[in-house]
Amino acid sequence: MIFGCDHSISIAGQGKGCYMLQVARTTMSPRITVRDVAAAARVHFTTAARALKNDPRISAETCARVKDAARQLGYMPDPMMSAFAAYRQKDQIPKFRGTIAWVTNFPKRHDWHNLASDRYYDGAVQQAAELGYQLEEFWLHEPKMTAKRASQILFSRGIRGLLLAPQPHNRGHLSLRWEDFSVVSFGYSMVRPKVHLVAPAHFRAVVTCFRQLRALGHRKIGFYCEHSKDERNDRLWSSAFLSERELLPESREIPLLMPKVYAAPPLLQWYRRYRPTAIITTYQGSGPLKWLRDAKCRIPQEVSIAFLNTEQTSLNVAGINEHSAQIGIAAVNLLAGMLQRGERGLPEAPLRVLVEGVWADAPTVRSLQAGD
Fold this sequence. Notes:
This protein has 13 helices and 16 strands. By secondary structure, the chain is α/β, with parallel strands linked by helices. It folds into 4 domains: about 30 residues, no CATH class; about 55 residues, Orthogonal Bundle (434 Repressor (Amino-terminal Domain)), CATH 1.10.260; about 130 residues, Rossmann fold (3-Layer(aba) Sandwich); about 120 residues, Response regulator (Rossmann fold, 3-Layer(aba) Sandwich), CATH 3.40.50. The termini are far apart.
């Protein structure tokens, strides 16, 4: 017997070469539609459709009534129709959906700018425009600004989506009227409240660097990172390095170099004592290269250098390209979905969306394999 959506079909033999086809109707309940829900809730069907999507233009009372009617009727969205609607809208010019705030918390208005944050912002602006949103900077240290006033201003402007730029200090916190907003933050610098966040895959970046260097024949691999930088990234860099170096006894003999501040003397002293053949560093500039070269150390002939974010320097260096603009794009995609679903307030189970970088080869790293 072959079962279809509305019929069952049985085929039975009636002698040689002869078959009888029997078709029997099955009993199936008709699909509940949005119009059915609208009729039950006593609203227009377009209002019902918007209420089911948590459209902010529909009052909370009407949304609740529509959703209650949908539950009682057993309404379920048709996945094929949803896919078809998405297909039709894909190539259309997006209509304006609203404003998303890029919220910064540095004491000075423009101090949030750095190479990574600027790329987050550029990616966010690009993706927001693709989805019909505009991005607007909102500085929390305007004169006479308080958390209460900031929340009131954002809400009165019709802003419901917030992108929280990285905080000025480690273990930062913010106080806003969170129940009014959908919120996504960047990185780990804000420890409270807990919200959804998007960040580079820091742990995987170190793993990729370490394994790439190991594949090139390096066995004495060192790690150089300012302590506060590692703290800012939830200690993921140092954790990954300690995990990977367990595979190499030679590397276990080299302690992690994690000073309070980056400076040439501790780096050179550490290098001369332990003589790593390769160094993984988080330094955002030319410092380690310059300091070692000034000390007559040849790179990469004597020591290879790999950076954990090659976008943070204009130099041609090997290491991880974090694709920072993609992090901004991912943040907007996450936030736009929350806005469309009407998800406001602090999440019960915060999400971490990690964007994995890729290895970028350059002349600061060489192979120690025979024949290379």
